Amino acid sequence: MLESIVDPDCYIHRLPEIVEHRRQFAAHAHVVLHRFLAPPVLAILRAQALPLCEHAVRRDFNMKSMGNTPRHMSTLGSQILDKMMPSLSGIYRDSRLLQILSQCVGESVQPLPTTEIDQYVFNYLHQPADTHGGHFDDYPLSLVLLLDVPQESDGGYVEIVPSASCVHDLDTAMSRRIVLEAGDAYLLRSDTTAHRVAPLLRNRVKRVAFNFAYTLPSFQPVYVSDSAAQLYL
Questions:
Q1: Domain residue limits, the chain
Q2: Could you tell me where the DSSP H helices lie in the chain?
C-alpha cells in the first residue's frame, strides 16, 4: 500500500529549490512542482485511479455561486474515496508532504477537518468540452497531483488570475496559463486566485487529478460556498 508520495531524493528538498519555490508562491500565488510524482509512485496512483474513473459521478451543470461557470466533469469526494482508496487519507496527512508545502508557503500547512467532503477529491475530465469552470476555493491552499494531462493543444491546461475580483477576470488579459505534464503537481493560493481548467478539445484525451485542500493557522474564512457539495456529494 502506498503510504507517501514524497520522494526523499527529490530535488524539491534542496535548499535553493525551497527558497525559489517560496519566492514563486509569494510572488505569483502558485508554484509548480515539476516531476513531483516519481515514476513508480505515478504508476501506482494511475493503477489505483482506474476504478475511480469507472465509478466517478458525472456532473454537467453551471455553478450559480461561481458566476454561472460550467462544470462538465466526473468526480468523487472524500467520503467515497475513503472507501475506495483508504490509503489516500494517510497520503493527504503525511507529515513529509505537509513539511514540503509549509516550506513553499512559509506557514504551517494544515489538513482540513475530517468532516469536510473536499479534503481530497478526484477530478476526471474525459469527454470533449469537459471543463472545471472558473472558481475560487473555500480554503486557502490547493495541491493538485496530475496523473494524466493532455498536450496543451488539446486543452485541459490551468488558467489563473491571482488576487482576482471575480471569476470572470479569467476572461481578460490578466489570465495566465499553466501548462503541466503527468507527474507534476502545483500548489495554489486558491481562495483568492480565480482558476479553471480549460475545456478538452478532442476525443480520446483525458485529465486525471487528485486535489488536496489545506488550510493555514492565519486563515479566516469570509464566505463558504455550496460548490463543494454540488460537486462532491
A1: 12-216
A2: 15-28, 39-55, 78-84, 87-93, 95-105, 227-232
Bridge partner list, 120: 212
Regarding beta strands 30-33 and 131-135, do their DSSP bridges make them parallel or antiparallel, or are they unpaired? unpaired
CB 25 within 8 A of CB 105: yes
DSSP-derived 3-state class of residue 18: helix
pTM: 0.97
In this structure, the number of other CB atoms found within 10 A of the CB of residue 84 comes to 13
Rounded to an integer, what distance in angstroms lies between the CA atom of residue 33 and that of residue 160? 16
User: How many whole angstroms separate alpha carbon 226 and alpha carbon 138?
Assistant: 9
CATH code, residues 12-216: 2.60.120.620
CB 54 within 8 A of CB 208: no
As a 3-state breakdown, the chain gives helix, strand, coil percent values, each rounded to 5, of: 35, 30, 40
Query: What confidence tens digit (pLDDT) does each residue in 139-151 have?
Result: 999 999 999 999 9
Cβ neighbours for 121, distance < 8 A, ≥ 6 positions apart: 75, 76, 77, 78, 81, 210, 211, 213, 231, 232
pLDDT digits (tens, 9 = 90+) for 46-58: 999 999 999 999 9
Element (H, E) at 8: none
